[in-house]
Amino acid sequence: MGTENKRSAEEEAWHEASNSKTASLLLRALPINTFPPFLLPSDHHTPHKQPAAGTATLRQDPENSPAQTTLPTATMLAAAASVKPSAAVSAATAKPAAFKPLHLPPLPAAGTRPLFLSVSARPLYHQEHVLATTVAMAASGRGGDRAASPAPPAAAAEGAARPMEVAGAAAAPADASRRARIGVYFATWWALNVIFNIYNKKVLNAFPYPWLTSLLSLAAGSAIMLASWATRIAEPPQADLDFWKALSPVAIAHTIGHVAATVSMAKVAVSFTHIIKSGEPAFSVLVSRFFLGEHFPAPVYFSLLPIIGGCALAAVTELNFNMVGFMGAMISNLAFVFRNIFSKKGMKGKSVSGMNYYACLSMMSLVILFPFAIAMEGPKVWAAGWQKAVADIGPHFVWWVAAQSVFYHLYNQVSYMSLDEISPLTFSVGNTMKRISVIVASIIIFQNPVQPVNALGAAIAIFGTFIYSQVIQHVYPEFITAR
């Protein structure tokens, strides 16, 4: 019953529209298969079938709906012939109407969209809005009123894609800002590291007590971070007892590595210490292989050969070679490898990271180092050495100590902050470039004599470190990501 009422209402609306002469012309121009549904038998509202003999096929707009609607021609003609016009229509069409030209609407101006009349693959009783819009425009004679016409599917798709375009345009400045921030991190990291190494070597030349020097570096960093937390410049970490327990082995390894590197720089040139420390990837692979049981592809082992060979060549040809300095750099490499392993195993899932992580690491290392520094050197030795250094250098020596202590913390803090922004591979490459800048700057400032063979060994070792980082990223990326 509801369906019959709906069709009766549609039939009345159709006959009212047909009273207009313009609508009559439009109806004559319409194809027979665009007649409204009440002119068609109900069996033609079924899903589409393959066209058979004696059927008419209406092809759709290929961009909007590639499907086809197939209607029996004989049935359509019979249904159209069986429709009897109303009395009003018969009276209006009794007299032959004079021919009047149909003025089509003007072409759309530049920048406007043309009107598309497309019939999709849906049944015809879902196309009332298309027919009603066409009849209304033809009856009113308004050619330029295109606002009421539905937008073509292509325009709708374009409009739907605009949020993605806007999001991409908004993401471009953010990506550029992130790259600029990473560039600033790298430049600051390298500059602070170069300054630290220069002042650290100056202090050790005048005050050869590496244990106290290491202790002052950790104390300065701890004081800076405590002041930052107290003044809310930095948000204090939410560290519980489990965090400090997990951090303790990391802090032990960090303390050993820091002191060993300082001992090395007190005995040999800064450039030589960093050449030996560039062999840290070899220690990382070997320790992971023999202590953790990890297996690496053959290209990883081959990439270690230039690192080991370059370090050996630089050590053999070093003019001011010292075994204590050489072993200090080697122990530092081993300790920092274990620091990374302990951090990987114990600190996974902890909420403290970046700047606060390094601050907590420095504080625990300070507590661990303090009794050992007193036992190894002691206050009496420090007092005598301090007086001698001040007498030889003058008051500038105090500023040297302060500078090396503060810059040690700052360069490590920036390196941990940059590690939060970049991948471990990029960090490894940046660390290699950092060593190059330190080696070159120390040779220029301290005027260390360098033989060509020694320089060749250093270049081979550093270039081998770069090759290693590229090889392991391609053949075993899980290893460097985990570190």
TrEMBL record:
An example Gene Ontology CC term for this record: chloroplast membrane
Pfam families the UniProt entry points to: TPT (PF03151)
Database matches in InterPro entries: EmrE-like, Sugar_P_trans_dom, Tpt_PEP_transl, TPT_transporter
Membrane-spanning ranges: 182-199, 211-230, 298-317, 323-342, 354-373, 432-450, 456-476
Sequence ranges of Basic and acidic residues compositional bias: 1-15
Domain of life: Eukaryota
Localization per record: Plastid, Chloroplast membrane
Gene Ontology BP terms: monocarboxylic acid transport
Keyword Transmembrane helix annotated: yes
Record-given protein name: Sugar phosphate transporter domain-containing protein
